[in-house]
Amino acid sequence: MEQFTLTLPSAAIPQNVTSATLCGVVSSGNLEILVEPAATSDACRIVVNTSAHGFRDIWEAVLKDFARRHSVGGLSLSINDAGATPAVVSLRLDQAFETCRGELA
Amino acid sequence: MNGLQISYFEASARKRLSELVDAGSLVEFCPPEMRQTSPHLAMLDAPLAFDDGVVTGRASLSGHKVLVAAQEGRFNGGAVGEVHGAKIRGLLDRALSERPTAVLLLIDSGGVRLHEANAGLIAISEIMRAVLRVQAAGIPVFALVGGSCGAFGGMGIVTRLCTEVVMSEQGRLGLSGPEVIETVKGVEEFDSRDRALVWRITGGKLRRALGEATLLVDDLIPAFRTAAVSLIERYRAHPPVPADLDELLGVQAELTERSARFAAARDGREIWANTFAEASRVPEMTVAEFNIQLGEAA
Question: Which of A41, B3, B46, B74 would you call most buried, defined as having the most Cβ atoms within 10 angstroms of its Cβ?
Answer without folding.
Answer: B74
